[in-house]
Amino acid sequence: MKISSTIYSFLSNHSYLLPAGVITLTLGMLLLTLLPADTMGENQLWEYDKLGHAILFGSWSLSVGLYYQIHKSKAVKLWIIFVSGTAFGLLIEVLQHVLPVNRQGDPVDFLFDVLGCLVAIWLLKTILPEETEK
């Protein structure tokens, strides 16, 4: 049995984990990206923020895609998952630009959001059973 089949089977049998994961990721991402920058403190971890963007948006898109597949009877449309993750990333960058939170929208952050979403789509194509992909 492939590891992707094992992961899919586990999440299907414990489907309550996916909504909790999506909600936690969404709230965590909003918190990390919209809090004033000076509340984050000085830490070398923030030097890797582009990688963080890719990982967070990839994880979010992967979780949403798995949730959609396991909880809905229709096949998951991967382009919708990609557009959703990309739109979420764009929304955050716009909010950083317009809200008075001492943050600035960054096009490079958005590019790494998109990269994370693309990796998630590739993973979904690997994990999802073939008859469920579209």
In sequence order, what are the helices and strands, one letter per element? HHHHH
- Note the gap between the termini: 23 Å
Structural class: mainly alpha
Number of helical elements: 5
The number of domains: 1
Radius of gyration, in angstroms, nearest whole number: 16 Å
Annotation, overall tally of beta strands = 0
Q: What would you call the shape?
A: elongated
Helical content class: over 70%
Major sheet size, sense and barrel closure? none
Mean pLDDT: 86
Name a few traits of the molecule:
single chain; about 130 residues; mainly alpha; about 0% strand
Give an overview of the whole structure.
The chain has one domain (3-132). The chain is mainly alpha-helical and 134 residues long. The chain has helices at residues 3-13, 17-34, 49-71, 78-98, 107-127. The two termini are 23 Å apart.
Question: Helices, strands, pairings?
Answer:
Layout: H1 3-13, H2 17-34, H3 49-71, H4 78-98, H5 107-127
Helix pairs in contact: 2-3, 3-4, 3-5, 4-5
Concise description?
This protein has 134 residues and is an all-alpha fold. The protein has 5 helices and no strands.
